[in-house]
Amino acid sequence: MAERSEVxxxxxxxxxxxxxxxxxxxIDYSILGNINNLPEKIDSDIDISFSQQIYNNIExxxxxxxxKYNYRLCNCFNHEISSKYxxxxxxxxxxxxxxxxxxxxxxxxxxxxxxxxxxxxLLENNQIISKRNCDFKVCNTTVSFLYYFIKxxxxxxxxxxxxxxxxxxxxxxxDAIKKELRNIYGSAGLNQIELLFNKNVYDGINAExxxxxxxxxxxxxxxxDIYKEYLRIxxxxxxxxxxxxxxxxxxxxxxxxxxxxxxxxxxxxxxFRDKKYFHLCPxxxxxxxxxxxxxxxxxxxxxxxxxxxxxxxxxxxxISFWLLVYPKKAKSNIIFFDRYFHDILIDPIRYRHGGSLKxxxxxxxxxxxxxxxxxxxxxxxxxxxxxxxxxxxxxxxxSKAYRKIASKLSNAFIIxxxxxxxxxxxxxxxxLLDYLAGRLKIHGS
Length: 445
Description:
By secondary structure, this protein is an alpha/beta fold. It contains 17 helices and 14 strands.
């Protein structure tokens, strides 16, 4: 409960600091969408519109804002033709609690490649409102309705809270709103919308009505907008905003516990659009993970079959990485690997590899690499206390081998998990935040 309160207070402060920064920079803007709970409760992204000139420099401005207040800009991606999503993080160095603020900035408002509202319209006659000792700018009432209503229609989702907010705007500027809606949806579409908002009680909005409104819309995709959309997709591909991380370590190191911690934490769910888990190798059809009680009891393959298996894994890693992993990374997913190819070099018997490791070592240099490796480490006696699958001597050998391979990988971190998995998890989360913030500074420079 105390942690939730700290996060809510910090999120509110981050939002107010952003408004202060914009005011100090003399930047005009309009907060978009449902503002009923602002600034006390920030339920989702902060949707905000700027002029085209400001939007063209928005990433640099966000970086300046983050530097001023000691925040980290950890993700940024262009999700519509003229919309960029920014994920800003404040990490409390004492408590290690992370607070996230998502800003969805746009100039013109596009939805599904269709121009809905120009930035001039979104900023025209915008007004300052005061809520809970906080001043911020919003669109005029008519444009506020148009933006939020069209967004809900395009998403085909209008909740009771959304309807209540829209109804309050409708009642304030009914005639002006109807005039604008007729231009967008035509008379037939306006008639259906009037029936909807002339009711005083929300009784749900059926999908057929939302589909009809989408079809009535006079907004159409233009040729130049198609070009801009392809350019946006191209940039997302060459500068993927997702992350691929692999966890290595001996049995009993607590690797699975740490992966579960990070996989289910706010960091994975807030910074990234989605997440994916693989065991050892990317699979198009995910098979259930079956743990072997004694993996070293399996019969090893001969040298020839072992070489064939290594070559097969090379092709499998390369093909599945570029066809399966990389597209998810380009879509801003975080991809977890529980073990990776390099585990074969440490514990060949587990993978039934017999003979020389020269070919496997060479392939280990060729296979596509994760962005980060985390080597989860613990003393051999503690490893055996947690899992008794190998001897003390073998556990000691593997532990040294993992540390050695970490020294050869420029993107590997050794994480001590001898005390508490929560401490190790927080250490990894800090490394992830630093890496993401550093990557954006490189891309933005």
